[in-house]
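Lab notebook, bench 4. We co-purified these components, and the gel suggests they stay together. Before we commit to crystallization screens, I want a quick structural picture of the whole thing.
Request: model the full complex, all chains together.
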Amino acid sequence: MIDTETRLKIADLLSRYGELIDADRLEDWLDLFTDEATYRIVPRENEEQDLPLPYMYCDSKKMLVDRVNSLRRANVYNFHYDRHLISGLTVEHADDGAYLVGANYAVFQTTHEGETSIFSVGRYEDLIVEEDGDLLFKDKLVVPDTGSVPRLLSTPL
Amino acid sequence: MIDTETRLKIADLLSRYGELIDADRLEDWLDLFTDEATYRIVPRENEEQDLPLPYMYCDSKKMLVDRVNSLRRANVYNFHYDRHLISGLTVEHADDGAYLVGANYAVFQTTHEGETSIFSVGRYEDLIVEEDGDLLFKDKLVVPDTGSVPRLLSTPL
Amino acid sequence: MIDTETRLKIADLLSRYGELIDADRLEDWLDLFTDEATYRIVPRENEEQDLPLPYMYCDSKKMLVDRVNSLRRANVYNFHYDRHLISGLTVEHADDGAYLVGANYAVFQTTHEGETSIFSVGRYEDLIVEEDGDLLFKDKLVVPDTGSVPRLLSTPL
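Here is the predicted assembly.
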């Protein structure tokens, strides 16, 4: 059983994760990861067949920083708003005081013209650790049901 | 007022409910119900007019087991991924120590080609009881807004 | 840090907010606001450019009451069901014991024919206060990503 305070802090971390992406505050979003954090997007089909071929794989926060920087340069022509709905939190103890956290997500995108559509739905399977009193992502695994590969490059999930 | 621990356990039960359907672990999903549990899908229009004509009605866990078995045989040709978003939990005390639990849901389906669409949105109105320390569904009432009758046979909501 | 009980009561208030709109119990929904409450819908584009030009602006509960009354008269020909998914709650202390509460929302609408579509996604930025032991909205700010102006008149978000 996870204590209530930890659980609510984990819920906060996920809320913050979605909020910061949606507000396009990606530089602040990076602060939710540990320095050695990994961030992976593995399509559900691959994950279920144990083919760990990811759409995207960042093996450190530095690589995530690079990615955000290149999004800042590249994304001028791909304007949209993101909106995350995250629910169904499950929390278990993992090794070394870490937490294994699952949640379902749906990300909606809205175009400049105000049209909203489903961009991606899927599941998060995260490893969350405590550092200096803060809970942070040590591994973020995104498992999309939706096969929207081409657009995946334009936004974190 | 419901105590915090119970409330979080109810949230866990609903999270688990969605997680297990979405992972197609329907045999484990059955463990979330009491032996005498009922599972009903009643379209919103009928429910509001007090016409309790359900799309589906299982009056025991045994009947749910049968249903899962027949899904296992029938569903070969209807491949899709499900994804539940469940939010807006409301919890009240009911008789005999049970809990009356409401929540809104959206279920998305993704085809083999990776296309995601809204399959059903609606509300859960559940009766949840404690058995041997576990919280379980004694009655699961699904009230869909969406009128997707034909496909309803292919997946639990 | 917000104490657990307050936090859960805030989550309850938001759940109730969605539940009452979705059940078309708008008269009860009004009870979630203080007498001097403001309710505003400001498109995200305007909000980000600090152009506080709202789609809708009610500067008191009385004005909200009027609005509900006119919806009751006008809405005969615009039948639909609403369904709110609200997640990603963030809570901070504001002045005078109030709480600054953020959350992401998605509202789905279902037509008489049973077709469900995305009506609006966006964010709530609310000011919530305690009055006589109840938590109530003192300011509800809805910031839609979706640009669905015309239909906005038909339902609260």
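Residues 4-22 of chain C form the longest helix (19 residues). Worth comparing against the SEC data before the next meeting. Residues 109 and 153 of chain C are 14 Å apart (CA to CA).
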